[in-house]
Amino acid sequence: xxxxxxxxxxxxxxxxxxxxxxxxxxxNIIGGATPGGWNVLDGIxxxxxxxxxxxxxxxxxxxxDEEFKFTCGKDFSDPNNEYRNASEDPYDxxxxxxxxxxxxxxxSESANYYVVCNLNDMTVAVTKAEYQDNPIRYNAxxxxxxATPGGWxxxxxxxLVWGGENEPFRFTWTGELNEGEFKIDSNSYNGDWGGPWFxxxxxxxxxxxxxKIIADxxxxxxxxxxxxxxxxxxxxxMAGSIAITKSPVGGIEDIVDSDVDTPVYYNLQGMPVxxxxxxxxxxxxxxxxxKVKL
Length: 294
What we know:
Elements: H1 4-18, E1 27-30, E2 44-49, E3 52-62, E4 69-71, E5 82-85, E6 96-98, E7 111-118, E8 123-128, E9 142-144, E10 158-159, E11 161-163, E12 167-177, E13 180-185, E14 197-202, E15 208-214, E16 223-225, E17 229-236, E18 241-246, E19 264-266, E20 272-273, E21 280-285, E22 288-293
Antiparallel strand pairs: 1-2, 1-4, 2-3, 3-7, 4-5, 5-6, 7-8, 9-10, 9-13, 11-12, 12-17, 13-14, 13-16, 14-15, 17-18, 19-20, 19-21, 21-22
């Protein structure tokens, strides 16, 4: 039976969704079924749908017969930040409940899954993805540092464009970088330095190798930008490689035609959006990148 606090939380959620207010700005999948286990800051990020801020999705690898649930919090201090199984059967993956009994979800097969949580009607769907060659862990990466548009403010991290299911380990970005340095966050919504970060690699002689990208943060190895300008970044997490290329001054890349310098929109996972509306998007005009609400 729900207590008064749980009823109040449910009422707030219903009012928020009824008036078009997002109940959460992101969700993390946490639990023994995920690579990060029960570390909330190492959860699998789910970002809001471009057309509905209360629908969250991700492609994620989940281990069979291990528990998982969803949270928008940074710790376990508030159960109302958690979205749990409305059923006592963990393999019944259909309905969510905010707070309530700590019932978990389980899948019967280890695989990559499409995971979608709809907080409008409190439903959840977990279906097997087409891509199964390697476990998918990250759907989003963010540039953070004084060389980037958002500086060292984690929540203002600059999102890279994810390759989607066709290229699930590739992330790209093109834009202006300042002289300075940056590293790469996997979840800017957490706003925390304790989550998974990516750093420059090390060569066989123990020297920093800026063409490599690894999650080992020993030494806090940041990428260095020696000169402000327009840069392209291409990351392959499977190969552990990163290419940072500066557009040549006076080259073709620097010519801006007013006819083609029109806004390009992406969702918060970096996927292109043709007709953005009713949501939060990444807007790119020329070399300028910003977050906008339409």
